């Protein structure tokens, strides 16, 4: 009985000793990157991919969204996107970056997901 009580107490207390993050106030967040098919580029009416790293994003306040390549994920994030658009934030000081995991798309829909991303890139290419 005592052993069981000690186990329960330790399981309840243990999470308080675990650090959920290593963020430091007034410091940059750790850089994240995507090496394979990272950034979608649209230059001279052609699409290409290059490596992407958040360290290349200085000078603006940013929201980086990472989502699955599914319409359900897009629907879940729609309220955030709508709120950001409604805020009418200045493009010279704010930018949203979206990372879409096309490997997480439903089998057979990856091509449609990529076409949707390309359409979004064309629509927002002037907002850097």
UniProtKB/TrEMBL annotation:
<dbReference type="InterPro" id="IPR006513">
    <property type="entry name" value="YtfJ_HI0045"/>
</dbReference>
<protein>
    <submittedName>
        <fullName>Predicted transcriptional regulator</fullName>
    </submittedName>
</protein>
<dbReference type="Pfam" id="PF09695">
    <property type="entry name" value="YtfJ_HI0045"/>
</dbReference>
């Amino acid at each position: 009985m005592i052993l069981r009580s000690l186990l329960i107490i330790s399981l309840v207390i243990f999470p308080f000793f675990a650090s959920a993050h290593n963020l430091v106030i007034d410091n940059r967040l750790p850089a994240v990157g995507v090496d394979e098919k990272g950034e979608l580029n649209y230059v001279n009416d052609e699409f290409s991919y290059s490596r992407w790293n958040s360290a290349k994003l200085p000078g603006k306040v940013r929201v980086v969204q990472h989502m699955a390549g599914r319409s359900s994920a897009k629907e879940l994030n729609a309220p955030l996107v709508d709120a950001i658009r409604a805020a009418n934030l200045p493009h010279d000081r704010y930018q949203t970056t979206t990372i879409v995991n096309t490997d997480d798309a439903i089998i057979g829909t990856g091509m449609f997901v990529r076409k949707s991303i390309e359409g979004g890139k064309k629509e927002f290419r002037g907002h850097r």
